[in-house]
Design a protein that fits this description.
Elements (H helix, E strand, L loop, with lengths): L21 E13 L8 H8 L8 E13 L11 H16 L2 E2 L14 H12 L7 E8 L5 E4 L6
Parallel strand pairs: 1-3
Antiparallel strand pairs: 1-2, 2-4, 4-5
């Protein structure tokens, strides 16, 4: 039996490492109710500012949450972050706490926060970022409707 070493260009692809920054996104869905109402102002001001979103009986959304992590693929796995791990983090940090809940009253990390889409992405960032096991959190995007979303790029984004 003859053994020869392979030339470098013929090495198996699994041993090759590619350089580059990659963005990986996980999408999650949850349903929740909320009311946009600032208690520092009277009812007339709140109705004028928030319209139907100020309904005292609440209203709901079918939210779509997108969490994007950036980084360089690990040479051993090819992953920036294992997507099953990102799924677990997003579920534990946000979905399990917000799904089928009243965001104004039932979610501890949202207590005292006006639950606009803009405020929600900032709050979600704060819940997700410390749990990441790999990569760097790049963005948190939340669709309130098919046409409307807010996106947070982190506390240092300008």
């Amino acid at each position: 039996m003859r053994t020869e070493s392979r030339p470098a260009e013929a090495q198996p692809r699994s041993n090759r490492s590619l350089e580059g920054l990659v963005y990986v996104t996980r999408r999650a869905h949850f349903n929740a109710a909320h009311r946009l109402h600032n208690p520092d102002y009277d009812d007339a001001w709140n109705r004028e500012q928030f319209g139907v979103c100020n309904n005292p009986h609440w209203h709901g959304h079918n939210y779509v949450l997108e969490v994007t992590v950036k980084g360089r693929p690990d040479p051993a796995t090819g992953y920036v972050i294992d997507l099953s791990e990102l799924k677990r983090i997003v579920h534990e940090a946000v979905v399990s706490k917000c799904d089928h809940r009243n965001l104004n009253e039932e979610v501890d990390f949202l207590k005292g926060i006006l639950p606009s889409t803009e405020n929600l992405v900032i709050a979600f960032w704060k819940e997700i970022e410390p749990r990441l096991t790999a990569g760097t959190l790049h963005s948190v995007r939340l669709y309130e409707t098919e046409r409307n979303y807010a996106e947070h790029l982190g506390p240092t984004a300008s």
